[in-house]
Amino acid sequence: MSNVIRSGRRAVLAAALGTPALVHAQGSGFPTRPVSLIVPFPPGGTTDISMRALAEAASRHLPHPVIIENKPGAANTLGAAQVARARPDGYLLTQFPASAIRVQMQQRLSYDPLRDFTPILCVTGYPFVVAAKAGRFPNGWAGFVEEARRNPGKLSYGSTGANGTPHVHLADLLQREKLELTHIPFRGDADGSQAMLGGHIELMAGSTSIGGLVDGGQAEFLNVWTAQRLRRWPNAPTLHDLGYNKTVTTPFGIVGPARLDPAVTRTLHDAFAAAMRDPQFMTVLDRYDMVSEYRDSAAYAAFLKEMVQEEADLIRRLNLTAA
Predict the structure, then answer these.
(1) Are 253 and 262 in contact (CB under 8 A)?
(2) Signal peptide span per the entry (predicted)?
């Protein structure tokens, strides 16, 4: 998918003049005050940093700023729960992670992931990886599969949390190979990586924040889940390289309450779409090995429908329950 985002003649003209285009909802003057954007993760993490860069860039295309509100907890569903109840005026939005969909399928929550929101646009996704201690599996992923098959139930793997994307999709790979391993959830990549280096687990499924250990020769990536190999670690195979028809980046976007005025939706879309071209935002994505997953409002709505069905099928097949 092209990363070029067309935002209209005003944006093109503004770029030619060297100034950002300010976008307003026709007839309403929206926004007349700051827009709040909930990030359901703690400050300082990859999601928070990337969303702050996006909000800062979008603020240059609106007459009032976009303000980040961090609301972690409840498996990253607090933003969705609050926006689902908010007035549909465009002043309260949330980053919409896959966990806001997955958790809703495993336990009864206060919102429906499709009916209760207006998709604004899809932004980016995460580069997930499976790592092992350097030299632990000389033949890479194939060597791991062979050893796990010889020792059912004796090996273990870690992830960045029960029922998170790394856990769910590594469990899917293990089921495809008919392997039995013990799952151990950790608070984050750092804790899990130390357990891996200490020999307490064989694999760690998480993000590219493990990459520092790879660069230092302490760990290696057995596979990466992006569509293409990662620029910083070109020797790490993708799942497609290993014969799996599978790509996992769990793209996330921005949503507002249901029944949002189409003109307001367009104003917000245009501001954030322009922000996605901002060099500072693109630098942040590159720093964390993230890529643009741009989809406009209609395409993002269609994508969410597909994602809900895929997640439901996966949870049912893996027989996952709420953590």
Answers:
(1) no
(2) 1-25
Rounded Cα gap, residues 61 and 154, in angstroms = 55
Distance of CA 157 to the CA centre of its chain: 21
Over residues 222-250, the mean pLDDT reads 95
* Cα 283 → chain centroid: 17
Which residues span the domain enclosing 214? Answer: 128-224
pLDDT of residue 164: 82
Sheet containing 66-70: order of strands: 66-70, 35-39, 92-96, 252-257, 117-124, 292-295
Distance, CA of 213 to CA of 209 (rounded, Å): 9
From start to end of 4-43, where are the E strands? 35-39
- What DSSP element (H or E) covers 102? helix 99-106
In the chain, the largest separation of any two C-alpha atoms, in whole Å, equals 68
Q: Is there a domain that residue 245 lies in?
A: no
Q: What is the mean pLDDT of the chain?
A: 89
**pTM, two decimal places:** 0.79
Q: Is 25 inside any structural domain? A: yes
Do 170 and 271 have their domain in common?
A: no
SS3 (DSSP) at 224: strand
Please confirm whether the linkage preceding 31 is cis (ω < 30° from 0): yes
Supply the pLDDT for residue 15: 39
Residue 139: CATH number of its domain = 3.40.190.10
Q: Do residues 109 and 17 share a domain?
A: yes
pLDDT at 18: 44
pLDDT value at 20 more than 60 = no
Residue 244 inside a domain? The answer is no
Same domain assignment for residues 220 and 267:
no
CA 288/CA 246 separation, integer angstroms = 21
My answer on whether 132 and 95 are in the same domain is no
User: What's the number of domains the chain is made of?
Assistant: 2
pLDDT in tens, 43-73: 888 889 999 999 999 999 999 999 999 998 8
